[in-house]
Design a protein that fits this description.
mainly alpha; 2 domains; about 70% helix; TPR-like_helical_dom_sf; Pentatricopeptide repeat-containing protein
Length: about 280
């Protein structure tokens, strides 16, 4: 509960900080266009305002992390009933995922370090620290929110680790600490590729789920494929004046979703507002 309290504050501060930084960036660009002051004066004014802005939530996250370290210390000296469990680790991971944004490229690395610490702790005999699918999903979410050129590929790297690890039967100790990906895992990776403008990769991940024996796509999965093709249609029209093919792909997937919703017993399928966007495209 104490960790949760710090993380809630961290998330609120991070959201406000990111909004402030985007506003400062826009101000700096406007100063450059209006040529008010020299470039160096504008840059110094910009950096002064950025440094004076509110905290980004990192201090609160360090406070939350210190609680987990305290638990680990008590466990290390044999305090009864005190264990560093997956719940504590996941609480910390979810907090860092809240802080991730395009201006915080270091956040996913912090998340990865926590996940690796969990895996190492489990391999060293702490059965309470085995990471679950929520642990991996939090790391993938952190990478996706940074929207860096390598963010989607890094998201998929963790997905592949889950797929490979869960298919390995105790060949390595590490394999036992790697859960199977669920539909949310795939959806997070799909969102990362969507943000980087790769509709074909988003579609491939949906098709991969569709032939899987362990995970099935839901309406959110279909929605991401449709959105990816619609965004591609808009980009093609703006850049090249071309239209048609990407919109047709979006419509094809919407019809597929409608057919499954009406004739399939698979759970989690249903249409929503994405239908409106596709009709607008047509």
């Amino acid at each position: 509960m104490a960790m949760d309290a710090w993380i809630i504050v961290a998330g609120l501060k991070a959201e406000q900080w990111y909004s402030e930084q985007r506003s400062l960036d826009n101000t700096y660009k406007q100063l450059g266009k209006s040529r008010k002051g020299t470039p160096m004066e504008n840059r110094e004014r910009f950096l002064d305002r950025r440094n004076a802005s509110g905290g980004d939530g990192s201090v609160e996250m360090e406070n939350a992390a210190s609680i987990l370290k305290y638990i680990q210390a008590l466990e290390g000296v044999g305090r009864d009933g005190v264990h560093a469990t997956v719940v504590g680790y996941n609480t910390l991971l979810s907090g860092w995922a809240k802080l991730a944004n395009p201006m915080r490229s270091e956040v996913p690395l912090k998340s990865e370090a926590i996940l690796r610490d969990m895996m190492e702790s489990y391999e060293n005999g702490n059965g309470n620290a085995a990471p679950d699918v929520l642990s991996f999903n939090a790391v993938i979410k952190a990478w996706g929110k940074t929207r860096r050129p390598n963010s989607a590929s890094r998201c998929e790297w963790w997905l592949r680790k889950m797929v490979k690890g869960s298919n390995t039967v105790n060949e390595q100790e590490e394999a036992a600490s790697i859960p199977k990906p669920n539909v949310q895992t795939y959806n997070l990776v799909m969102e990362a590729w969507l943000q980087l403008g790769d509709p074909a990769r988003v579609q491939d991940l949906l098709l991969e789920m569709d032939v899987s024996d362990s995970v099935a796509p839901n309406s959110e999965s279909f929605s991401k494929v449709i959105r990816a093709w619609l965004q591609d249609e808009i980009n093609n029209q703006q850049q090249y004046g071309l239209s048609g093919l990407s919109c047709e792909n979006a419509w094809k997937w919407l019809k597929e979703l409608l057919e499954r919703e009406n004739g399939s017993s698979r759970l989690g399928l249903g249409t929503g507002v994405v239908l409106v966007y596709t009709q607008d495209c047509g």
